[in-house]
Amino acid sequence: MVRYTPRGHPDHSFSRDGKVIGKGFAAEAVAMDSGRVLMAGDTVFGRPSAFVVARYRPDGHRDRSFSRDGMAITNMGGNFEDVHAVAVDSEGRILVAGYIVVKQQGKLAIARYRPNGRLDKSFGNGGKVVRSFPAFGVAGQVAIDSRNRIVAAASDSHYHFELMRLRQSGSVDTSFGDHGTVVTSIDGAASDVVTDRRDRIVAAGSHFSDFVVARFRTGGSLDRTFGTHGKLVTSPPGDRGALLYAAAIGRRGRIVVAGRSDGRFTVARYTSRGTVDDSFGHGGFTQKPGGGAYALTVDSDDRPVAAGFHDNQFAVVRYEGR
């Protein structure tokens, strides 16, 4: 994990050289928690498979007030466990989400912790939720809406977008879609999900050479005011396939996505109505040769910030937000 100053230089006030290496686990996701930093992942090969979340103070040192030694390790009951996301809800509770494999079946798995790093026993079964969702594919990307409901995205055996929503308690929200789940005919592998200020749900993924974005109303139906009947399909420049990894929403409701296309670090932006934002890059897309963008956020000045790799190095790119 690396922290940079607003000017793009390593922040030497963070662990002296700007870098933290979390020993004993593979880091997959980061999040901010009241100035502290959360790093989540899973145990490395050769150890029992488990979810891991560690918390660091603003100076980059492990926060020993969290789970006694700064790190919480939770076995979710699978013979393979893979973390995809970490998030903090409005009550300061920490969610670590991903998928596990149980008897060759992939399942959605979420652990929730109290701010002190202990499992939140009011959530699911002793702080854990494991759901068969979907029948095939990889689930694990989640978003938290303004009511602390949890939305998860995945793809089924036909590579169609699927969504599930859970209540704060961890139970399935049966008011959403068809008894808590939404199955669409949208072609593509859903790889990220976010919610906007109105709790509409934006799911994003890719299908062959296209980026695919869909928006849903709070009840789970497609938002027909967005794109074409609720979805938007665009083709990034290049002809060697496209993989979308991350999505984010800025202050003006514009949707930004990031991934890899034609072997390039690729970012695109769309308007809140589901059209390509021609004011961004060239025809809504911007690319850097080599590498790929795997994580994304939009800062307080509405500037997209994408992170990934380029020429075998960590890469962070900030774009103008106008």
Please outline what is shown here.
This protein is an all-beta fold and 322 residues long. The protein is built from no helices and 23 strands.
Q: Can you give keywords for this protein?
A:
322 residues, mainly beta, four-stranded antiparallel sheet, 23 strands, 0% helix, globular
Give your account of this protein's structure.
This protein is globular. The protein has strands at 25-33, 36-43, 51-56, 71-74, 80-88, 94-102, 105-113, 128-131, 141-144, 150-155, 160-166, 181-187, 189-195, 201-207, 210-216, 231-234, 242-249, 255-261, 264-270, 285-289, 292-298, 304-310, 313-318. Helix content is 0%, strand content 48%. With 322 residues, the protein is mostly beta strands. The model has no long low-confidence stretch (mean pLDDT 93).
Sequence-ordered SSE layout with sheet pairings:
Elements: E1 25-33, E2 36-43, E3 51-56, E4 71-74, E5 80-88, E6 94-102, E7 105-113, E8 128-131, E9 141-144, E10 150-155, E11 160-166, E12 181-187, E13 189-195, E14 201-207, E15 210-216, E16 231-234, E17 242-249, E18 255-261, E19 264-270, E20 285-289, E21 292-298, E22 304-310, E23 313-318
Antiparallel strand pairs: 1-2, 2-3, 3-4, 5-6, 6-7, 7-8, 9-10, 10-11, 11-12, 13-14, 14-15, 15-16, 17-18, 18-19, 19-20, 21-22, 22-23
What portion of the residues fall into strands of 2 or more residues?
Answer: over 45%
Which spans of ≥5 residues are poorly predicted at pLDDT below 50?
none
Structural Rg: 19 Å
pLDDT averaged over residues: 93
Number of continuous helical runs: 0
Structural classification: mainly beta
Question: How many beta-strand runs?
Answer: 23
For the largest beta sheet, what order do the strands appear in spatially? 1-2-3-4
C-alpha geometry: globular
Task: Estimate the helix proportion, in percent.
Answer: under 10%
Largest sheet: 4 strands, antiparallel
First-to-last CA distance: 29 Å
Order of helices and strands: EEEEEEEEEEEEEEEEEEEEEEE
